[in-house]
Every structure is written in structure tokens, then in C-alpha cells.
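Same chain as my last thread, 102 residues:
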Amino acid sequence: MTGTDTPENGAAREKALEELKRQIREQKARIDPAVLKIAERAARIAQKQQEREMREGKAGANEMVPYDREAAAEIVALFLQNRGDREDFERKLLLLLRGKLN
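reply #2:
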């Protein structure tokens, strides 16, 4: 075998994937369950939007990151609800969106 299809590369890839999965499990264990539910909901919303675009045959649906203004606003609102520094974060976010914060 040559190139990337060697048994050594396959074993290294599997080892790297297992390490990544272990790190993900550790991170999920540290996350507040309520915040994790919000993140999972946000992921489902994004996935549904992408599936809808693909069904509708929108050009480039496979290549583009799906963006739905309503879904994005809902995700941001859910995120802000669970921040202790909501006002400061919201102010900084608005400044970033307006391009006034470095």
C-alpha cells in the first residue's frame, strides 16, 4: 500500500478519532445540562434549515453554511438568556456586528 491508505495511517486516524471523542465527552461532562440542551436545540435548528434548503434544491446548499435569520435570532436569544453578563455581552456583540469593536 502507498499514500494515505496504509495500515499505520488508518491506526493513527482511529487513535486520533478516539482521543477527540474522549475530549468531547470530557467537555460535555463539564457543561451545564441546561446549556447543553440549548446547544443541541440550536444544532437541530441549523440541521433542519440545511435539510430544507437541500429539499428545495437551492443552489449551493451543499457548499454553503445555512443561514436563516429567524433561526439565528432564536439561537442568539437562547444563548443570551443563559449568560450572567448578558448586558455587557449583548453590547459587545452589537458593536462587533456593526464593525466598531476590534
